[in-house]
Amino acid sequence: MIELYKRRIWSDDKTVSVIASACLHENPKIVVSACKFFLLLEYDYDSDDESSDDENEKVQLLKQRKGSKMTKGKEAKLDKAIKQEKRKSQRKSLVKFSTDFLPIDMVHDASGFVDKLFSKLISTNERYEVKLYLLRLISRMIGRHKI
């Protein structure tokens, strides 16, 4: 379901609520993957600035002239390659979600969900990593929903 949400096939509230219920599952692998979904998805959207820096570096590399002189044919190829890079970056920006509607914002009854997560955290005897992910998710929910 996480993969379907990321591909924008199932990007509604019901999918988010099912993934949120996976945070309360007994299997620690499922809990960690569901917590990572809520925690790491936000950082994926903030990487637009880095991609624009990479794009500028590629354009600069394309513009460098090494060796022979610039003919009309080479200049046309260079312009075509620059346009292709710009189109690729525009397509990537269209695929990204806006950060206003993150899945963490679509969780129904956020305070009840945080209470359940905290009680699970107290009662669990799982590894330190699982507890840490639960703590991170609890703190992110508290900060996002101002609980």
Task: Set down the secondary structure blueprint.
Blueprint: H1 2-6, H2 13-22, H3 28-45, H4 48-63, H5 72-95, H6 110-123, H7 128-145
Helix pairs in contact: 3-7, 4-5, 6-7
Q: What brief labels describe this structure?
A:
147 residues; mainly alpha; 2 domains; single chain; elongated; 7 helices
The global form is elongated
Low-pLDDT runs of 5+ residues are 42-49
Which H/E pattern describes the elements?
A: HHHHHHH
Instruction: Please indicate the percent range of residues in DSSP E strands (runs of 2 or more).
Output: under 5%
Supply the helix-strand structural class: mainly alpha
Helix content: over 70%
Describe the structure.
The two termini are 27 Å apart. This protein has helices at residues 2-6, 13-22, 28-45, 48-63, 72-95, 110-123, 128-145. It is built from 7 helices and no strands. It is mostly helical and 147 residues long. Helix 3 packs across helix 7. The relative contact order is 0.14. The radius of gyration is 22 Å and the shape is elongated. The chain folds into 2 domains: 2-46 and 99-145; 48-95.
Write a compact overview of the structure shown.
By secondary structure, the chain is mostly helical.
